Amino acid sequence: MSIDQSISAVDSAALFEKSISDHWRLFQAEGIILILLGLTAIIISPLLTAHAATIVLGWLFLIGGATGLLSAFETQQAPGFGWSLLSAVAAMLAGGVLLWNPWQGSPTLSYVLIAFFNVDGILLMMLALQLRLEATPGWLWIMISGALDVVLAAIIIAGATGTVAWTMGLLVGIDLVWGGVSLIIMAHAARDAADLIRPVITREGVRRAQQPAHCFPP
Question: In 3-state terms, what secondary structure has residue 210?
Answer without folding.
Answer: helix
